[in-house]
Amino acid sequence: MGLQEGEHVLIVADRPTLKVGDALREESERITPRANVKLFVLEDLARRPLAVLPGEVLASIPWAQVTFWAAQSIPGELGARGRFIDETKRNARHGHMPGITESLMAQGMCADYDEVYELTHKIQAMAAKAKEITVSNRFGVKLQAEFKKSLRWVPSDGRYHERGKWGNLPEGETFTAPYKVNGRLVTNLLGDWFTERYGNFKDSLSFSVEDSLIKLESLDCGNADLKRDITKYLTTDANSSRAGEFALPTNPLLISRPTVGNLLQDEKARVHIAFGDPYPDETGAKWDSKTHVDALLEECDVAFDGRKIMEKGRYVV
Prior knowledge:
Elements: E1 9-13, H1 18-29, E2 37-41, H2 55-60, E3 66-70, H3 78-91, E4 93-96, H4 102-105, H5 113-127, E5 132-136, E6 142-146, E7 154-156, E8 166-168, E9 173-176, E10 180-187, H6 194-198, E11 205-210, E12 213-214, H7 224-233, E13 243-249, H8 252-255, H9 263-266, E14 271-276, H10 280-283, E15 292-297, E16 301-304, E17 307-311, E18 314-315
Parallel strand pairs: 1-2, 1-3, 3-4, 4-8
Antiparallel strand pairs: 5-6, 5-16, 6-10, 7-9, 9-13, 10-11, 11-12, 13-14, 14-15, 16-17, 17-18
């Protein structure tokens, strides 16, 4: 985060993530005076799920130069988290850590972030030239994605040293809003609150995508509860089932390791595609959504305009 002495730090945590919140607070106080660091615990301020941001948190955002959101992801809070990001981008730089755990602090956060930065910008530069990217794996994924110059590739490189910069931590990916997606997806890990509720589920979820929209009738999963929940989620608004993000992993430490069942970290290790909000401020997309759910894809072969750049989840360039 590039924290400097004298800057103000705002940390939002909850009861399950309080040890992480305390660690962020203690480390911040090594650099800037204790009076310049605020730690809020959500359960002390409001009933969850949060319908809106607590007033104490909202009032403190303009005070801070560095902010962290280090709390669990639970159903119904995406809007509050999104409001927090939007407000912090006005004055601060933000480290977003929804669903963070102590184990993730000891794993993905311990990567060499100079290496993360270098790989992120190398892959971003290559991806930005591609008109078509294909993805396949042995589990049945077969995707074709088209891209436009007007839709920007964003380097999530882990360095947030300027006002308005933000990203998910642990970090390491480059992403954009795809122009068009067609094909079939098979996944065992979803984002948002599905990570907390279902983790790395055994019964794969598969579905077809046509002209960027999930065909809801094609949803197939042996877990009836998961199928019901994701179907309801994808019908939240008109764009909830629309492909809004295509992302490539760029955390070298995590790419070489097994996934852990937490999308906050695992998306930095694997190819993933999200449905719902396309982060229009970052990508330049002209639409939005109230929802955003990622689907992780394992052991992918990836080609840029026919040139293979990844084989079984490992870069070959």
